[in-house]
Amino acid sequence: MKRARARHKPCALKELEVSVSELGLGYESDEIVLFRYCSGTCETAVRNYDLSLKNMRLKKKIRKEKVRARPCCRPLAYDDDVSFLDTYNRYYTVNELSAKECGCV
Amino acid sequence: MKRARARHKPCALKELEVSVSELGLGYESDEIVLFRYCSGTCETAVRNYDLSLKNMRLKKKIRKEKVRARPCCRPLAYDDDVSFLDTYNRYYTVNELSAKECGCV
């Protein structure tokens, strides 16, 4: 008997509270930030572009090229810069950390 | 001796002249269209978002979720609708077929 496949949800914005240290960007700080990210699939967002690109590939009209013939669930915009103090009391600002809006691009 | 790896070029707009039939969308027509697409890699476009998302994955803070922690080279905009006559003289219009602008989203 085959197990049911995990049902993938459509592309949407999700959030997670994490410490700055946990972000893994190299900063040591216990300050908590709201990390928002894009999660889900884009099956319903396939365009004529994607279908045609897939065919150009199959027909070897496009070869040895890095092309993506499927929409990506990605941020359409990013939140404002995030500022924090690290454990040595140094002040940092990081940009494009958290998503503001997601879409199937 | 190892063979050199293909050097991937940065994300850019490319073009190809193809017949409507070749697009593989199910239409039979010898009319030629200019199919423009996005090709290349986005290594230089990695954001704090991507690095953090990758870490959240490694730390199992995000599990069983479909997330993409790398920028995609995709159309930022599509060309105008394309119209053509098929071999039976029927008129069709297809949208979002060809890219107008590419970017690392």
From TrEMBL, chains A, B:
Chief place where the protein resides:
secreted
The cross-references to Pfam families, in alphabetical order and at most eight, read: TGF_beta
Report the record's Gene Ontology biological process terms.
glial cell-derived neurotrophic factor receptor signaling pathway; nervous system development
All copies of the TGF-beta family profile domain together span: 1-105
Keyword flag Hydrolase: no
Assembly and partners are described as: Homodimer; disulfide-linked. Interacts with GFRA2 coreceptor and RET: forms a 2:2:2 ternary complex composed of NRTN ligand, GFRA2 and RET receptor. Also forms a 4:4:4 tetrameric complex composed of 4 copies of NRTN ligand, GFRA2 and RET receptor, which prevents endocytosis of RET.
- Name this polypeptide is given: Neurturin
Family matches, as SMART domains:
TGFB
Q: Which cellular component, as a GO term, is one annotated location?
A: extracellular region
Q: Which domain of life is it from?
A: Eukaryota
One Gene Ontology molecular-function label: glial cell-derived neurotrophic factor receptor binding
For this chain, the family text in UniProt reads: Belongs to the TGF-beta family. GDNF subfamily.
Q: For this UniProt record, give its keywords in alphabetical order, as a comma-separated list.
A: Disulfide bond, Growth factor, Secreted, Signal
Q: Which Gene3D superfamilies match?
A: Cystine-knot cytokines
